[in-house]
UniProtKB/TrEMBL annotation, chain A:
Alphabetically ordered keywords of this record: Membrane, Transmembrane, Transmembrane helix
Phylogenetic lineage: Bacteria, Pseudomonadati, Spirochaetota, Spirochaetia, Spirochaetales
UniProt name for this protein: Permease
InterPro entries per UniProt: DUF969
Membrane-crossing residue ranges in chain numbering: 23-45, 57-76, 160-180, 192-212
Domain of life: Bacteria
UniProtKB/TrEMBL annotation, chain B:
High-level lineage: Bacteria, Pseudomonadati, Spirochaetota, Spirochaetia, Spirochaetales
Residue stretches spanning the membrane: 6-25, 30-50, 94-116, 122-139, 160-183, 195-213, 218-235, 241-262, 283-303
Organism for this UniProt entry: Parasphaerochaeta coccoides (strain ATCC BAA-1237 / DSM 17374 / SPN1) (Sphaerochaeta coccoides)
Protein name stated in the entry: Permease
Keywords, alphabetical: Membrane, Transmembrane, Transmembrane helix
Length: 226, 304
């Protein structure tokens, strides 16, 4: 029964869906897969130990934490807020697109801005809502929800598609570790470089998305500008 | 030589883990202080001593770590979190120069990887050292800040910080057990021989679908790369760098679409007090699908 070996994949899926502890789920999946495939306990421990040691690369990002931690204490987030507050004459879509662009650059330089709690709720969403109210007078609850959704989405786009441009990002290091383990000699600089095109595309797509939001708002509130 | 440098950096990481463990031990209010400290000490042990011991010892350590987290015996201890007043007044003093150390982190890493003979992995450690020097020069922070703020952030990241490493190790176990072959055999039925564009599409869409189910792009990456990416793309001549780099972000297209990725899509909706808890996913869907399409085209063009 070859297909039985997929039990590990099933365990990972079920474990994640049931919100079980992630580390335990991954380890159980590995051990069970090994047993099903007929490996001895000693084989499994040796394989697990050997690969855990060689994959330490994936945890190199820890070395960057003291610098980021100190920068935070000395006002990294406050200055980012200052910078975004400086935006003048912006529409809802432009505020969100600009935030996404800034977030993209920050992610590429491994700055941990803190995302939704630190930026989107206290700053980006109020600014985006404010721009709509300033332009159209009153907006309804549904529009408010849509703007909230777009504001949070801008954070996710910026965060996801640019983080691998940083050589020490955990995603970059995971890619390196996985490929090296399989016998392909790639390094973090190559992965980071090859991650740049998609980061650039994501900013362009984000701008189009945001401009379409501005158009949609204008169409909904046509003639009600005040 | 490069190996010695690498082992040195792994020892530094081990020391950071030990500091997080000590921080837990010193927090008398923490109910799980002993087990939390144990978690970080065992992890530090594998980083520092692991390479010189039989591999099964590290394997056993990983099992113990998993047991500790499974029973929720590893939690965050009390940290010296800077107050809003502190960061604000520091920010007013330093201005935008506060961004320089972080920029150093990224730029020095690239420069060191390109121009120094120590390898790209060691370049990350070198850039961390240079940036640490720069951050001290700019902020004039006391030396102990490296310890307090470094261990604070590591504790913040918590045990899931080792998840990428563990998932890569899982990929190795899956390969040893032949899981990749099973997936590859199943997938070979839908990929016609020699149709590279179909293979690229199956890999990218498979990555996104798997991420939608699991809510975690990292986990999808090791499974789908071993099962589809390597046999149908890389072994057919695709550039592994392109496949790897675009593979993970193709998975992130799935993250944007799934309520399983609660941290990104559901919790922020609660935070923003939206009426409909799926509005973020709704806003993201057109971009996610566009980006997935772009991934397929870009991977096909760049990889072959």
């Amino acid at each position: 029964m070859e297909a039985l070996k997929l039990i590990g994949v099933v365990i990972v899926i079920v474990g994640f869906i049931l919100k079980r502890d992630t580390i335990a789920t991954v380890v159980v999946a590995g051990v069970v897969t090994g047993l099903v495939a007929g490996m001895t306990v000693m084989d499994i421990l040796n394989t697990l130990g050997r690969s855990f040691i060689t994959q330490r690369t994936a945890t190199l990002f820890v070395l960057t934490l003291p610098v980021i931690g100190i920068s935070e204490r000395y006002g990294l987030k406050d200055k980012a807020v200052d910078f975004i507050r400086g935006i003048k004459n912006a529409t809802t879509g432009r505020i969100i697109a600009l935030y996404q662009s800034i977030r993209t650059v920050a992610a590429a330089f491994s700055l941990r801005l803190g995302g939704h709690p630190q930026f989107v709720r206290p700053l980006i969403n109020p600014m985006a809502q404010g721009a709509a109210v300033a332009k159209f007078g009153k907006i309804d609850e549904k529009t408010e929800d849509t703007i909230k959704g777009y504001s949070a989405a801008g954070e996710n786009f910026g965060n996801f598609f640019a983080q691998n441009c940083f050589m020490g990002a955990s995603g970059t290091l995971l890619i390196v570790s996985t490929l090296v383990e399989q016998g392909y000699e790639v390094n973090a600089l190559q992965i980071a470089t090859m991650s740049i095109p998609i980061a650039v595309v994501s900013v362009l797509v984000g701008w189009v998305h945001a401009i379409l939001l501005d158009r949609k708002l204008a169409a909904t509130y046509q003639g009600k500008e005040g | 030589m490069n190996n010695i440098i690498a082992e040195f950096f792994y020892c530094v990481i081990g020391v950071i883990f030990i500091l997080v463990g000590l921080k837990a031990l010193n927090d008398k209010t923490l109910a799980t202080r002993i087990t939390t400290a144990l978690f970080w000490f065992i992890l530090a042990f594998t980083f520092i001593a692991g390479p010189y011991l039989p591999h099964w010892v590290t394997g056993a350590c990983v099992l113990i770590i998993a047991v500790l987290t499974a029973f929720k015996r590893v939690t965050q201890s009390k940290s010296d979190v800077p107050s809003e007043e502190t960061t604000r007044s520091n920010a007013n003093k330093l201005g935008y120069t506060v961004f320089i150390p972080a920029l150093c982190l990224a730029l020095v890493a690239v420069l060191a990887a390109t121009f120094l003979p120590f390898g790209a992995n060691n370049a990350i450690g070198i850039s961390a050292a240079v940036a640490l020097l720069v951050v001290f020069l700019i902020t004039k922070a006391p030396a102990k800040s490296a310890v307090t703020d470094g261990s604070r952030l590591m504790d913040n990241v918590g045990p899931v910080g080792i998840l990428p490493q563990l998932l890569a190790a899982l990929g190795a176990l899956f390969t040893a057990a032949g899981v990749g072959t099973v997936i590859a055999n199943g997938v070979s039925a839908i990929i016609p021989e020699g149709m590279r564009i179909i293979a690229v599409a199956v890999y990218c869409i498979g990555m996104a679908l798997f991420t939608i189910i699991m809510g975690n792009g990292f986990a999808a990456f090791s499974v789908i790369t071993v099962g589809i990416g390597i046999p149908f793309l890389i072994m057919q001549g695709a550039n592994p760098v392109v496949v790897g780099a675009l593979g993970l972000t193709a998975g992130y297209c799935g993250t944007l679409l799934t309520p399983m990725a609660a941290n990104f899509n559901i919790m922020p909706a609660a935070l923003l007090e939206t009426k409909n808890k799926y509005v973020i996913i709704k806003a993201q869907a057109p971009v996610a699908i566009t980006m997935l399409f772009v991934h397929i085209v870009l991977m096909y063009i760049l990889a072959f």
